Amino acid sequence: MNIIVVGLSHKTATVEIREKVAFSPNLIEKPLHELVALDEIVEGVIVSTCNRVEIYATTRDIAGGIARIKRFLAEYHHIPLESLEPHLYSYHSEAAIRHVFRVASSLDSMVVGEPQILGQIKTSYGYAAEYKSSGIILNRFLHKAFSVAKRVRTETKIASSAVSVAFAAVELAKKILGSLSDKTVMLIGAGEMCELAAKHFMNSGARGVMVTNRTFERAERLAEEFSGEAVRFEELFQHLHRADIVLSSTGAPHVIIGPKDVEDVVKRRKFKPMFFIDIAVPRDIDPKVDDLENAYLFTVDNLQEIVQANLAQRSLEAEKAEEIINQEIGQFFKWLASLEVTPTIVALRNHFDEIRRAELEKTLSNWKDLPPDAEKRLEALTMAMMNKLLHTPTTVLKKAGQGGRVDLYVDGLRQLFELEAVLEEHEELELEV
Amino acid sequence: MSQIFFYCTLVLYGLATALYLGYLLRTTQGVATWASRLVAAGFVAHLLSTIHRFNSAGYLPITNMHESLSFFSLVIVGAFLLFVRKYKIAILGSFVIPLALLMIIGSSAFPSVIKELNPALKSGWLWVHTIMAFVSYATFTIAFAAAVIYLIQQHFLKKKKFGALFQKLPSLDTLDDINYRCLTIGFPLLTVAIISGAIWAEKAWGTYWSWDPKETWSLITWFIYAALLHGRMTTGWRGKRAALLSIAGFLIMLFTFIGVNMWLPGLHSYK
C-alpha cells in the first residue's frame, strides 16, 4: 500500500486558482465519500485552507492513483484538467510522508512557523475520521504527522520569534513593560499598520485602547472597533499619561510629540516607562524622546531589523526541524512497509495450501485399493514439502520487514502469485495527538 | 569531611559558573538547565559542609574570613535558587553564581582551622544578628545582579541592538520588580540586624552604639537602601536610577562586609 499526496499551495497557484479548488468544510462529506469510492483509492483525507488544497490518500497503484485524484479535483470543481494540472504537485511514498510532515510542522507555510496549519490539518483529519474515509494507514500517518509537528515545535524555536512588524512591536513592548495585561494603548492617527499593531496588542492582553485623530469622527469609529475610547486630538496631552504604549502614524508635516511633552507626561506617571512606536513619515515623535530615561522610542526600521534577524534565526531552526523530520520518516516508513509483511505471508501460505489440497484430493480420489495409512502419509509428505519450500521466502520476507526494501518483495510476491492480501493491524496503534 | 564537601562545592559552583557564562553566549536552553542542576547539587554539598562544620565547631561558622565568605556564598546561592524558582530567569545565574564562586574561592584562600570561640560571641544574639545580616546581604546581591542586567538590557533597547543576548535577558519590568522585591526583603532584615546588634552590644559591652567601623559602615549601607526604598515608594524612583543606587549600595555593603573586617580594626574584625 502506498501513500500519495496531490495538491496545490500558495507556492504553485495564485489565490484565484486556490479558491476555485477549495473545499468548504461544511460540505466536506460528499467529496470525501466520492474520493474513497474511486477504484484506485483506498483511504483519503482532504485538507483545504486558504493557502493550500491537498488530498492525502492510499493506493495500490501509485501512478493510477495520482492521475485519478487529479481528475477527481478537476471534475469535482468543474475545471478543465489541462488548466489545473500545471499547478498541481504530487508525491508518493517517502516524498509524500516528508511533504505532509513538513506541512504539519509549518515548514511549507507562507510564514514559516505559523501555528494555524497544524490545527487546520487536525480539523480536516477529524472530518475524514468522522466520515470514515481514513483508515489504518492514514490514521496512523496523520497522528504521526501531529506528533512530528509537536516535536518540531518544542525542540526548535521555529515558532517562537516575531516575523511581522506588528508582532515584533508587541514582543519589544514586552521586553520593556513586562506583562501587557494592565497596559493601555494610545493610537494616534489612522494607519493600517498602527491598527494592526493595536490588534496584536489587544490579542496579547492589553487592557484598553484610546484613539485620537484630527477628525474626531474617525477616532470615534476606530475606537468603537476596539471597544476603546476616542480622545479629541487637542486633548491628547491630557490623556497621554494614561497610555503605556503609544502608536503614532499621523500625516502631520511636523513633530507632534516632543521631548518636553514626554518628560512631563512621564513625571506625571511617576516615571512608569512608556513605549512609543512612530510609523509616520515625516516623524510624529521627536527622536530626542528616546534620550529620556523612561521613554523608549522605536521606528519601523527598528522593528524591521528585528523581523529580519528573526527570519534568519528561523531558517537556522528550520534546518533542525528538517533533521527531526528525516528521523521520523525513517521510522514511519518502516512501520508502513512492515504493515503488509504478515498478511502477505499468510496469503502466500494459503495459496500454496490450496494447491496442495486440490492436488492431494485429485490423487486420492483416483487411487483404488489404498494402503491403510497412505492418506496420512501423503498428507504429511505434502505438508513437509510445502513447509520446506516456504521456509526460506518466509524468513527472508520477515527479515526484510525489519529492514527497508520490503515493499519490493511484497509487491513481487503479490504479482508473481497473484495474491490478494487482506490488510490487518499486527501492531498496537499508539495514537498521540 | 567538611573539607571534602567544601571542595565538592567549589568544583560544582565552578562548573555551574562555566555553564552559566557559556549560556550568555550560546542559545541552547539545555546549558542553563544543567547549570541550575549543578548549582542545586553544589548548594546541597555546601549546606552539608556548613552543617558539618557547625557540628564539629559547636558554633555558627561565621567567626572568621574563611567561614564568613563561605556562609555568604551559601546564603547567596540559597536566595538565588528561591528567586529563580519564582521568576524563572535562568540568566540571573550568569550574574549571581560567578559572585558566589568568587566568595567561596576567597573563602578557600583563608585558613580553615577551627578555633575556640571568643567568649564574647557565645550568645543567642549571634544567630539573630548575623543570619539577618547575611540574608539581607544576599538579597542585596540579587538586587545588584538584577540591576546590572537592567543596565545591559536598557543599553540594548536604547542602542537598538536586538541580538541573541537581548532576547535572552528578561524584561526591564521584571528586572525592576526583582530589584524592588529584594529591597523590600533586604532592607527590613538589615534594620533588624542592626537593631539586634545594638541590643547585643548593650548586653555584651554595655553600650548600644560605639561607632565601631563596622557599625558606621553598616549605617551608611542602611542609609543608601533607605533612600532607595523611600524614593521608590514616594516619588517613583525606578529603572536606571534604582539600578545605579542598588549597585552603589552593593559595593558599599561589600566593603562593610569584607573591607571593614580586613582593613579597619574594630570590634567586628576577626581575630
From TrEMBL, chain A:
The record marks 99 as: Important for activity. Transmembrane segments: none annotated. Keywords: NADP, Oxidoreductase, Porphyrin biosynthesis. Residues 171-306 form the Quinate/shikimate 5-dehydrogenase/glutamyl-tRNA reductase domain. It catalyses: (S)-4-amino-5-oxopentanoate + tRNA(Glu) + NADP(+) = L-glutamyl-tRNA(Glu) + NADPH + H(+). Pathway: Porphyrin-containing compound metabolism; protoporphyrin-IX biosynthesis; 5-aminolevulinate from L-glutamyl-tRNA(Glu): step 1/2. It is an enzyme of class 1 (oxidoreductase). GO terms for biological process: protoporphyrinogen IX biosynthetic process from glutamate. NADP(+) binds at residues 189-194. It holds the Pfam family GlutR_dimer. Residues 6-156 form the Glutamyl-tRNA reductase N-terminal domain. Gene3D superfamilies: Glutamyl-tRNA reductase, N-terminal domain, NAD(P)-binding Rossmann-like Domain. Its EC number is 1.2.1.70. GO terms for molecular function: glutamyl-tRNA reductase activity; NADP binding. The keyword Calcium does not apply. The active site is at 50 (nucleophile). Substrate binds at residues 49-52, 109, 114-116, 120. CDD domains: NAD_bind_Glutamyl_tRNA_reduct (cd05213). Homodimer. During catalysis, the active site Cys acts as a nucleophile attacking the alpha-carbonyl group of tRNA-bound glutamate with the formation of a thioester intermediate between enzyme and glutamate, and the concomitant release of tRNA(Glu). The thioester intermediate is finally reduced by direct hydride transfer from NADPH, to form the product GSA. Catalyzes the NADPH-dependent reduction of glutamyl-tRNA(Glu) to glutamate 1-semialdehyde (GSA). Possesses an unusual extended V-shaped dimeric structure with each monomer consisting of three distinct domains arranged along a curved 'spinal' alpha-helix. The N-terminal catalytic domain specifically recognizes the glutamate moiety of the substrate. The second domain is the NADPH-binding domain, and the third C-terminal domain is responsible for dimerization. This is Glutamyl-tRNA reductase. It comes from Oryzomonas rubra.
Automatic annotation (TrEMBL), chain B:
The chain crosses the membrane at residues 6-24, 31-48, 68-84, 91-114, 126-152, 178-201, 216-231, 243-264. Keywords: Cytochrome c-type biogenesis, Membrane, Thylakoid, Transmembrane, Transmembrane helix. Residues 64-268 form the Cytochrome c assembly protein domain. One of its GO terms (molecular function) is heme binding. Pfam families: Cytochrom_C_asm. GO terms for biological process: cytochrome complex assembly. It is a multi-pass membrane protein. It comes from the Bacteria. GO terms for cellular component: plasma membrane. InterPro entries: Cyt_c_assembly (IPR002541), Cyt_c_biogenesis_CcmC (IPR003557), Cyt_c_biogenesis_CcsA (IPR017562), Cyt_c_biogenesis_CcsA/CcmC (IPR045062). Its main location: membrane. It is found in: Membrane. The keyword rRNA processing does not apply. PANTHER family: CYTOCHROME B_B6 PROTEIN-RELATED (PTHR30071:SF1), HEME EXPORTER PROTEIN C (PTHR30071). Belongs to the CcmC/CycZ/HelC family. Required for the export of heme to the periplasm for the biogenesis of c-type cytochromes. This is Heme exporter protein C. The lineage of its organism: Bacteria, Pseudomonadati, Thermodesulfobacteriota, Desulfuromonadia, Geobacterales.
